[in-house]
Amino acid sequence: MCGIVGFIGHGNVQDVLMNGLEKLEYRGYDSAGIYLAEGGQTGHLFKEVGRIANLKETVDFDLPAVVGIGHTRWATHGMATKANAHPHQSMNQRYSLVHNGVIENYQALKTEYLKNIQLNSETDTEIVVALIEWFANNESLSTKDAFKRTLEVIEGSYALGLIDKENPEVLYAAKNKSPLLIGLGQDFNVIVSDAMATIDVTNEYLEIKDKELITLTKDAVTIEKFTGEVVQRESYIAELDASDLEKGTYPFYMLKEIDEQPTVLRRLIQSYQDEQGQAVFEADLLKAVSAADRIYIIACGTSYNAGWIGRSLLEKIAHIPTEVHLASEFAYELPLLSQQPLFIFLTQSGETADSRQALVKVNELGLPSLTITNVKGSTLSREASYTLLLHAGPEIAVASTKAYTAQITVMALLADAIRASKGIEASFNMERELSLVASVMESILAEKAAIQTWVEDSLMETRNAFYIGRTLDYYVSMEAALKLKEISYIQTESFAAGELKHGTIALIEEGTPVIALITEEIVGAHTRGNVEEVRARGANAIVISMQEVARVDDQFVIPTVTTALAPLVMVVVTQLLAYYTALGRGLDVDKPRNLAKSVTVE
Ligand code: F6R
Q1: Which residue segments constitute the domains of the chain, with CATH numbers given?
Q2: Quick one: pLDDT band at residue 556, thresholds 50, 70, 90?
Q3: Which of 352, 412, 494, 531 would suit a FRET pair with 545, their CA atoms being 20 to 30 Å apart?
Q4: What is the model's pLDDT at position 410?
Q5: Active site residue 597
Q6: How many CB atoms lie within 10 A of CB 155?
């Protein structure tokens, strides 16, 4: 979703902004722009619709800029046009602003203050920059006070970077709900919505809290509360490896990330187990989870799908009743909560606005929470009672793959640790089985060519497809369908196999692909019955099964792993299937249309 980079000080401002915006490309955007100010009150605005490459062609890299702000926009208010792209400027072009988030009361503010101001875009952001100029002019305020005054009246989510071209020695910033960091350098400072975008210029960062006002010069950063009280804060070193951001020899990040899964899984076993194979989780965390009479897993999209597997693991292994909720629904209709609930927030990015909104609610109720995330220091991690990291390395492709399997693995390890702490007998050795899972993943990854051929024969021309399965296979089919639809644009739905005949079977036509997942002996026979039902109606039924329950004519058979962990291997086949379908259709696998990596609006 939208990204921000700002730079003040010595260095080529254009290079830092453009490199930063390129690093943020993966998050999804549809237009981009930068604003540069020179020492002598001269400013330059560059904006383009489409790829950063378009913008790069128009930017003058030789301008002697001393400060600049850049932005990638994912349209919310107004279409993806040049006029709506950021930075936005005040009427007299004194102020230029970039904004991530949504200003909820922008219409009311427009009516109250800006009736006579000419606006050039349909965005909520332009209202903010127009207000800053309005307060500066009408209430004779300094830029800082006009900015503060504006922050006091706007409502909603925001990360903001502001330049006053009359004083280009200062860069202003503020945030509320949306992520923004300060990067510290020698003779320069930066603002950035994701440290990854500026990791090649600095690894030292300062956190900004909601409703603080930041002023940056090339050699100083001041953080103030709105009351004027100055805040001292320690910086931290971001543990990001710039080389993790490279694709290497891979054509797309998604394939690289699919391939990384066995390594991530082994890394997680090492991170959460000691040399004796005993789980190592913070004692307080284990105590809090063990004490829960019910766990509520809250998440969106792929993380939500992983939540269903987590539910099964927590119930079967740790014996704790568990529910799974969509974050975007949860905050607005709380279920009747148990006496001692614990909330698990599953979120790769740790920044998803819907999940954060639910966490705010949980915190208001004073209830314990655990965020399982890939991003250390992310908003949901900071605001939850406990955090567990996914250790998956940056996930760049919009379609999540390694974060899904990492989330399941962390929940499996956690469930096993709770089991042990409660003295419940183990039905399998978690470490050994997870190691086997990593090896089976590798054997599936070695079959890419077969999967690609199979995709070319079965999926390339279709407009719709179905995944079916029962219990765990059904939960995996939810993720399999999401993956296929989001990157190949084939309308794909997942169904609990038993439900097909209750309505959906009406959609089956001659040749419709129906992919059945079969890992569980106990339900496998029933799912096979459902496969026959769709075949009898002309479907092109395809079976992906586990060796133990396989039949000779199944299209893809994977080595057997323990049933509870089967989703970890089953899903890999479906990730590859989605990848090769999108590839075969000539689509941009890493940046599917309309999607953003980190969804920071509700
Ligand atoms: C799909 C995908 C999304 C995310 C969802 C939640 O491939 O990536 O569905 O899973 O937007 O994001 P996080 O996990 O960052 O909260």
Answers
A1: 3-176 (3.60.20.10), 251-444 (3.40.50.10490), 447-589 (3.40.50.10490)
A2: very high
A3: 412
A4: 98
A5: yes
A6: 13
